[in-house]
Request: fold
Amino acid sequence: MTAVKIIGAGSIGNHLAHGARQLGWSVTMTDVDAGALERTRSDIYPGRYGHWDDAIRLASPEQTLGEAFDVVVIGTPPDSHIPLAVDAIEAASPAVVLIEKPLCPPELGPCKTLQEAAVAAGARVLVGYNHRLTRHTQVASEWLAEHCIGEITTIRAMTREHWGGIFAAHPWLAGPADSYLGFTARGGGALLEHSHAVNIWQYFAAIAGAGRICEVSCMLDEVEREGAAYDRIAQLAVRTGHGLVGTIVQDVVTRPARKWARVEGTEGYLEWQVSVDPDHDLVRCVRHDGDKREEWVNKTRPDDFRGELEHVDRLLREPELPSPIDLEAGMATMQVLVAALISAREGRVVRVEG
Reply:
């Protein structure tokens, strides 16, 4: 039986614990806050899934010292991700470490430390940009591989979502200042918390053969209020090494939310949308000759995480299998996020090195 250790008993930790149990895994959840573990047992998990699962072991970090796990999941604030991941690689000997996005705060130095630790231990590190693994993303990838819209001319992506939904899932937080969410420097704000848009833009650009983002120009709407300091709107203009130009927008003010990408081509366009309604994701291809096809994919919120863990399960069985959420892809997204922050604060275009 696959044994997973989930570090962090917040909303994401509960989703992943439930997904792991659906796969029949042995689940241990840890948190430095005993109150968070009790909240998981008595409130979050039974409130979402109908009842508490007694097979889930709740433990303090000290109670798991010296134990080995097949998988370690890091579901804590971003400024703790890399230290916890490096510790887990050294102490728990996992085959796979899954880190919730974003990989870390807006700095690149720690990424190298993590990469070196993973290589030395032979551990696979993944970063949880789970939209790359959903069914509608797979369909979009297949259609683009068929050159369904001709030559790609531009890509636009956005994750525009008022963060009231995040706080509704974390009712113990009074507001942004109570967590990393209210601090861009800790990995919060629109630029990092909603970085799914940057990541999916990179994914579709790679499928189109357009290369990596090499130039970033960014404008941020940064605010300081009630003890928090964060960007609430991030607007990026990007260019790849092959000359593809596009735009990315992320914010924490838009409602209803829109999580969307559009790949424009010489013969049509492809649209990709997360939660087009509460029960569906959507991918649509429209050609200029009038041909149109679309696929509505049934989904629930737990499905996003179940697919992610099914992917991990497959990697455990096929360790040589390429993964769209490998550490390299997460680090590439961090490079763009760091470049965007520098661009906005220094008022210039920033080059992103390979």
